[in-house]
Amino acid sequence: MVKINKDVCMLCGGCASVCPFNCITVTEREVIIENCKECGTCIKFCPVGAIE
Q1: pTM score, two decimals?
Q2: Angle of CA points 8, 10, 26, to nearest 5°
Q3: DSSP-assigned letters across all residues of 3-33
Q4: What's residue 27's pLDDT?
Q5: Are 10 and 48 in contact (CB under 8 A)?
Q6: pLDDT value at residue 1
Q7: CB-count exposure of residue 28 (10 Å: 0-12, 13-18, 19+)
């Protein structure tokens, strides 16, 4: 299960832009992950390592 570390996340939206399944939505306050396929693309992309 992919998790976002809210203390580290900058809400940059990069993870949402690279998700091949459009499972990630970024709002002004949080990152929402729904129906994640656990492909790991977002984990590799995150510039601050906020995704586990």
Answers
A1: 0.89
A2: 115
A3: -B-TTT-----HHHHH-TT--EEE-SS-EEE
A4: 96
A5: yes
A6: 86
A7: exposed
pLDDT digits (tens, 9 = 90+) for 7-38: 999 999 999 999 999 999 999 999 999 999 99
- CA 41 → CA 7, 12, 29, 30, distances in Å? 21, 15, 22, 19
Handedness of CA 41, 7, 12, 16 (dihedral sign): positive
CATH of 1-52, one of 3.40.50.720, 3.60.20.10, 3.40.50.620, 3.30.70.20: 3.30.70.20
